[in-house]
Amino acid sequence: MWADLGRYATVADATDLYLRLNIGGKSYCIRKELYTEERTLMHDIVEATHEQRLAIVDGCDPITGEYYIERNSRIADHIIDFFATGSLHKPQNMCIEKFKEELAYWRISHDHTIFVCDVQLSTCCAFPREASLLKPHLQQSTTFDEYETDFDGAYLYSFRLSTWRFLEDPQSSVPAAIFAILSVLFVFASVFGLILGSMPEFQEDPTNASAYHTMHAKTSELEKLNKFRPAHTRNEEFPDFVYRPTDNPAFVLVVLEYVCIGWFTFEYFIRLIIYPKRGEFIRKTLNVIDMLTILPFYLELCLPLVGIQSHFKEFTGAMLVVRVLRVLRMARVFKLARYSSSLQTFGQTLKSSITELSMLSMFLLTGIIFFSTIMYYLEKDEPHSDFYSIPAACWWCV
What we know:
The protein folds into three domains: 5-121, Potassium Channel Kv1.1, Chain A (2-Layer Sandwich), CATH 3.30.710; 174-197 and 249-342, Voltage-gated potassium channels. Chain C (Four Helix Bundle (Hemerythrin (Met), subunit A), Up-down Bundle), CATH 1.20.120.350; 354-397. By secondary structure, it is mostly helical. The model is unreliable at 1-14, 118-143 and 234-243 (pLDDT under 50). Helices cover 53% and strands 4% of the residues. A hairpin with a 6-residue loop joins β3 (59-60) and β4 (67-69). The longest helix has 26 residues, at 354-379.
């Protein structure tokens, strides 16, 4: 984007309208009027004085008048092209994480990426070789810097921005790292407690745990011998024994659940209060996961207010609501994605490959149904056969 300087009477006149940059060893002469995005780094450079520019860039050549910026020259063409055309294209064969890092440096929002580049923007060339739960999110480029400009002009700007950095950037300080580790431990503790709460041995009254296992094994054996036995006859061996293993978890597991939910609620609402754009905050994927983590717990607490009691086992509809809410508790597993850049990259890869994965799933489903049907017709007439239906044969095929 070199300029024709011959149209101007003096070099000073041209300098007022044009700016010379050297990005990663590649020279550009650009028109200042192109850079109208006020939130970008380029706007700050164009509008700054010479002294102010020296504080922003990495150097200046007094002979050529070029301001030097030590950044990736492969991306420089696309960055300059964005300010000229308003469209942002991702270079071919470039790691998405590196591309995002450059966008964060220039303070360019991902919203400017045109649709045809969406698939590439969600694909990384490789996963980090040494991934960990507390590995920095792209050295804060994909998590913190992306949000930083949203705090411009906000009430209590410095306090809210520093608090947001504390919550979102574990590498910013030792307390922030401790906070992130504590959050991960709460996620693991919550999932661990949820798993233990499903075991008969960890109920408030575990005395019938062995009897439950015996009844379950006996019932399973009877079901194999008689697939169409009426349901009301299955407990004939245990006529006075009714035990549901997940109804009354031990007190310590209940306390653990309350403590974890309290922490998750605190995390969610402190982020919601600090972030200035609350509507945008609620719609983001990681925050939706956070909401799904705590919402089932509070909805289950509210069920008695509308007349649904969890001990009303005879009401199928009421129990279905309770069970759905309890299944949704497993959404808290996905909270780990907030602290793992690898999980986030993996999720973006799955999103960008949804068409290919759908075709693969259809291919696998076709194969399962085909071979299950064959096994069903070959084995259905055998005594005590496990292939008493095509869906049952599907389990074997899987």
